[in-house]
Amino acid sequence: WSVKGGWHRPRVQPYGPISLDPAAAVLHYGQEIFEGIKAYRHADGSIHTFRPEQNALRLQRSARRLALPELPVEYFLQSIRELIAVDGAWVPSGENQSLYLRPFMFAKEAFLGVRPANKVAYYVIASPAGSYFTGGVKPVTIWLSERYQRAAKGGTGAAKTGGNYAASLLPQAEAYENGCDQVVFLDADGNIEELGGMNILFVKKDGTLVTPASETILDGITRNSILELARDRGLTVEQRPVSLTEWREGVASGDITEVFACGTAAVITPIGALKGAGFEDTQPTGELALSLREELTDIQYGRIEDTHGWLHRLDA
Ligand code: PMP
What we know:
Mean pLDDT: 95
Structural class: alpha+beta
CATH class of the largest domain: Alpha Beta
Distance between the termini: 25 Å
Low-confidence stretches: none
Order of helices and strands: HEEEHHEEEHEEEEHEHEEEHE
Radius of gyration: 20 Å
Number of strands: 15
Largest sheet: 9 strands, mixed
CATH topology of the largest domain: D-amino Acid Aminotransferase, Chain A, domain 2
CATH architecture of the largest domain: Alpha-Beta Barrel
Bound molecules: 4'-deoxy-4'-aminopyridoxal-5'-phosphate
Shape: globular
């Protein structure tokens, strides 16, 4: 895709290595953005993605922050449709199976000065994805990263760009060393931000769903959809700063009755424990997370009616 607009030699080619100039800007300055989206096969064989225009719009927001050209929504959708059109059999059938699609754009212009690149490449790669959990949904253990943050105010936290993930690798390794599955980050104000690759939500005793608001959070499409399903059920939804104290005291007093995380890969995963800063708190798990998970996956796999118009058919 060219900065001046329009495709330049678009094609579908067999998966394999690509060649880059050693001075390509992406290798030095990390000027790149990406998306993650799944294609689901329904029982009637048809193939659908979930809210892909939201991924396209988020890619545009990421592009603006990373000084990359904004791919029009129609071009984003076309790139996915054409990939699937080559061979729909790539989309597996079966319980919780999907084809994971990874659209990404990077600066391939070769130069060593620090400036936005004029030549970029846009690719979509795909990989079959099985169920995130083997043997049923299991609560995960979360490590609180005290020492490291993934994003700064005015930085790139809200963009889906490699630099944020680069910043999260060492804390993620720290989480593993401490027997945890995932890391939870605090934002620049010390409030709860998100996990390395998932957003976080809390359920209060009165049924209210609370999720952090912060300028450095990646605006998750799964979270956004969960909030909408919760509103449909008549639940109150609050998007506001959540402090670590509110979280820990809420769990201790019983005011918080469930803690869970969400994202395209796992959909929803209950959080069973929070560890770090010298403490280890067991977290309450409950029915709401699991029932929202079921409703969302039922929509994605076409098992219930898509009343929100969230599905986008790819093979017709
Ligand atoms: N936060 C981060 C940092 C992520 O990488 C992801 C995964 N894209 C999410 C949240 C969840 O976003 P989504 O629901 O759109 O997958």
